[in-house]
């Protein structure tokens, strides 16, 4: 049964590669009983190939990916049941685009120290994002700002700790 505490809110779990977005996002969606989208699945094959070859994406590369995510947010909100998606959402302009949908979009920024992220990436297998691109993500990162709807959570803790903090913050009515 769906947890209606978050209503039709669309939660975007954001952060750099290896911050735990997929794991945390999937667990939040499961606990809330809402749809989950792994945002990386919406990258065109050309984006995946570019990153796999060690080249960072630019805004032109990201345009179709962000458009697909924006459409998912619109349709999820229109369904009235809320949802959770993962998306690096490194720039404020991307988050602004999502908020312009008119949906109740709320961000969970999984903040992670560069060294911890690098260590996690080094032990990850089968992902298209190579470790050498991590620096490019930090270079363009606009952390969540005080005037944006959401919360920043230290992602260096256990998955259970991060998920618990995210659920508490995401579903509080005054947030």
Kindly estimate the percentage of residues that lie in beta strands according to DSSP.
5-15%
The CATH superfamily label reads P-loop containing nucleotide triphosphate hydrolases
Biggest sheet strand order reads 2-3-1-4-5
**Distance between the amino and carboxyl termini:** 23 Å
Helix content: 40-55%
User: Roughly how many Å is the radius of gyration?
Assistant: 15 Å
Major sheet details: 5 strands, parallel
Overall tally of domains: 1
Could you say what the CATH topology is called? Rossmann fold
Explain the layout of strands and helices.
Blueprint lengths: L9 E5 L6 H12 L3 E3 L6 H8 L6 H20 L4 E4 L5 H8 L5 E7 L2 H9 L11 H7 L9 E5 L4 H12 L5
Parallel strand pairs: 1-3, 1-4, 2-3, 4-5
Q: What does the model show?
A:
The chain is of the alpha/beta class. The protein has a single domain, classed as 3-Layer(aba) Sandwich (Rossmann fold), CATH 3.40.50. Helices cover 43% and strands 14% of the residues. The protein has helices at residues 21-32, 45-52, 59-78, 92-99, 114-122, 134-140, 159-170, and strands at 10-14, 36-38, 83-86, 105-111, 150-154. Strands 2-3-1-4-5 form a five-stranded parallel sheet, sandwiched between helices.
Characteristic key phrases:
14% strand, 175 residues, single chain, 7 helices, alpha/beta, Rossmann fold, 5-stranded parallel β-sheet
């Amino acid at each position: 049964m769906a947890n209606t505490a978050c209503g039709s809110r669309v939660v975007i779990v954001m952060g750099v590669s290896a911050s735990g977005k997929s794991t945390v996002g999937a667990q939040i969606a499961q606990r809330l009983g809402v749809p989950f989208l792994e945002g990386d699945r919406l990258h065109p094959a050309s984006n995946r190939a570019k990153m796999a070859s060690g080249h960072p994406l630019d805004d032109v590369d990201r345009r179709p990916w962000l458009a697909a995510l924006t459409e998912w947010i619109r349709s999820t909100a229109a369904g009235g049941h809320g949802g959770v998606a993962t998306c690096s959402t490194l720039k404020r302009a991307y988050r602004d685009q999502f908020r312009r949908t008119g949906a109740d979009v709320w961000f969970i920024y999984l903040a992670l120290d560069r060294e911890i992220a690098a260590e996690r990436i080094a032990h990850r297998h089968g992902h298209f994002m190579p470790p050498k691109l991590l620096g490019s993500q930090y270079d363009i990162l606009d952390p969540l700002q005080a005037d944006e709807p959401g919360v920043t959570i230290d992602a260096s803790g256990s998955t259970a700790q991060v998920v618990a903090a995210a659920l508490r913050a995401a579903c509080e009515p005054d947030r």
